[in-house]
């Protein structure tokens, strides 16, 4: 049975690989791709998404949306993804953006497709505007897989925060409080053994050896250098593709649990931190006396936090989507 999906993205190199994965999965039908500012300015992110769609031989419409955060200044990730977001490869799309605003498209597409999967790969500005304008869409989303946050671990733009949430924490807070069935895939899940190491990147280009395999590695040239030289990781980290792998096959996430999660908007040093309350455990009885470990935040567990993945299976899925 075909599963419908809508992707909201600030398309740079790892977003492009995630889009490729969705478009190349036979039982996923991507209804639309909506573009938000983030890694790149809106127009560049739109170009990168449209080029990826063309390379995959698909006709999925790409709509442009919010060009800035709700309340903050804009920050782009040139330092990580290169001047064009694609490792300086300077890809140019042939097709124009589809007419219409991404926020309206999110509302219309979700309302027209109850049970749709929403995948967010960038700042959550578009989605926050959509759920604020039309809160009824929440009930029509079966899963909202969010590449964002850092679950009780170090961030990648500050010690406390991951880039997508940090860029527009007010938007993320709106979404996290909206009732959307969020599955938070923190950036830490793409690190360490989840990285593509040199041997695996060679496998992509020399053994799989398809245009999509070359694209997936080539467009991440800047990201590879930043990941190894700045973060000290062993190869190429792909946070958005890891999130997309979980969206495509939920069993790739091998450990997850529901928690109350708050997004910090006010802290001087903790802006954008995803604060996960891990104390929401079930009551237990000792000598017939009900004992509770209380919720520190007093909030109901409402966000599914992904803690661990099967690294081999995530990579196998990536390789599969590179093949014809």
Model description:
The chain is an alpha/beta fold. The chain has a single domain, classed as Alpha-Beta Complex (Inosine-uridine Nucleoside N-ribohydrolase, Chain A). It is built from twelve helices and eleven strands. Helix 1 links the parallel strand 1 and strand 2. Helix 1 runs parallel beside helix 2. The longest helix has 14 residues.
Summary tags:
two-stranded antiparallel ribbon; 324 residues; Inosine-uridine Nucleoside N-ribohydrolase, Chain A; alpha/beta; 9-stranded mixed β-sheet; single chain
What structural class is derived from the secondary structure elements?
alpha/beta
CATH architecture: Alpha-Beta Complex
For CATH, the homologous superfamily is named as: Ribonucleoside hydrolase-like
Strand content: 15-25%
Task: Say what the CATH topology is.
Answer: Inosine-uridine Nucleoside N-ribohydrolase, Chain A
Radius of gyration: 19 Å
Biggest sheet features: 9 strands, mixed
**Shape call:** globular
Secondary-structure blueprint:
Layout (H helix, E strand, L loop, with lengths): L2 E7 L3 H11 L4 E8 L6 H14 L6 E3 L13 H4 L20 H11 L3 E5 L4 H9 L7 E7 L15 H5 L1 H8 L5 E4 L12 H11 L2 H8 L2 H9 L9 H10 L4 E11 L10 E4 L6 E3 L2 E3 L11 E7 L1 H12 L2
Parallel strand pairs: 1-2, 1-4, 2-3, 4-5, 5-6, 6-11
Antiparallel strand pairs: 7-8, 7-11, 9-10
Helix pairs in contact: 1-2, 1-11, 1-12, 4-5, 5-7
Outline of the structure:
This protein is α/β, with parallel strands linked by helices. The protein has helices at 13-23, 42-55, 78-81, 102-112, 125-133, 163-167, 169-176, 198-208, 211-218, 221-229, 239-248, 311-322; strands at 3-9, 28-35, 62-64, 116-120, 141-147, 182-185, 253-263, 274-277, 284-286, 289-291, 303-309. The chain is built from 12 helices and 11 strands.
